């Protein structure tokens, strides 16, 4: 690994994953990861631009931000790039009327969307709502369409709750892809459009930005393919084998967000 | 397509898929497909060897055969090759103790299997038991294992019930494969070992046998890869697009089992 000073030269903006980096979700609103509340505050007091870039699709941004604020984080809805609003824009642009296979917590993000007589399926991290019956309904909608369109909010394999690893939307997306013989369109990380919209919101170019996440493929690999640098934290869903991933190598590995912010504030151009 | 006489020359044995060929499963035990009860009876009166080769994994063989007998079919448990007994043999041979993600209807097939302290997962067509919680438990077992083993009873995409198309085990197998970054071992069609064990039971060589099924990939493609001939019926999950499948071409297409048996009895060597 190159020295940190070299690795972080020219960084002007930081994209932060939320789950597994700021906090571990779970019963009772989850728990902040040690040092992360202060790390976010220090980052926001610095000259660096900060944007939160999440694949959270169980909760609306309002609910997510409220939960994080209660844990002590300095964060507001306008600072968050999340897949549900991005999906709504695509649905409107292409006149798509979705059958929604989503968690009730995120339903309010789709309030303005026409869901009558569906001509596509939108799948998100539905958690307990991934029942056989709900999966089968989405499958049947897709099989009835001449050109089946499946939009997936992220394609994460799993995430970490305080109680353990939990299946994310990705496995269920794969299930519908296989059942119908189709390929889903992913809205959220690691889609390049999604990273770009987060960068655009803070006016930072990809080569001036660093992504910090716990997902070696979705966060690190995705950001690197967009021309960003990327650090993986050893919190959240991180597993030691990630540091020897066959396809993705992070620009750096840090114990947690606090260490990442220490390094950033030490080494980026003053 | 070559003339039927040429196509069916030298056939000595017939493998019959059950669901979608003999009957459509569904509420109240399902319904026999028109002409199939008589077709099976005629086939069994002929000089041809007959074996039923199913991926049914929701019901035990006892229950399946009982249901078919009530619909009028001449069939007994000893004539059926099914994936659950084949899986039990593998589990015993390899000292595997499964976590079972299966339908309650097939649980009795695993009565003799040690399921304590699991070192693998067996997934079958669990239907309504494919809840998020059950999927997540299987996922967590696999993630805890150093060498995760996933055994899937078939890998069908979907099947047809009287009420419509229903997701089969395949999509859920794909979900766990993706979540854990592993490849499942499939027991059942289209696995060559499975077809071979069905042929062995009737003492017929692959080149002397014809498979009759409604699944262009699992039945037709699988049997052909074993050196058998294969006919697709236009019942069950058959869809017109199957006749232009990009990878698999049946040796012949027939409207239903009755037509297949007509042709067999007309054209095979007396």
Q: Strand share of the residues of chain A?
A: 15-25%
Structural class of chain A: alpha/beta
The tally of domains of chain A stands at 2
Please report the first level of CATH classification, the CATH class of the largest domain in chain A: Alpha Beta
**Based on DSSP secondary structure assignment, what is the total number of beta strands of chain A?**
14
End-to-end separation of chain A: 23 Å
Greatest contact between two chains: A-B, 31 and 30 residues
Mean pLDDT over all positions of chain A: 96
Based on Cα principal axes, name the global outline of chain A: globular
Stretches with pLDDT under 50, minimum 5 residues of chain A = none
Number of helices of chain A: 9
Catalytic activity (chains A, B): diphosphate + H2O = 2 phosphate + H(+)
Protein name (chains A, B): Phospholysine phosphohistidine inorganic pyrophosphate phosphatase
GO molecular function (chains A, B): inorganic diphosphate phosphatase activity; metal ion binding; phosphatase activity
EC number (chains A, B): 3.6.1.1
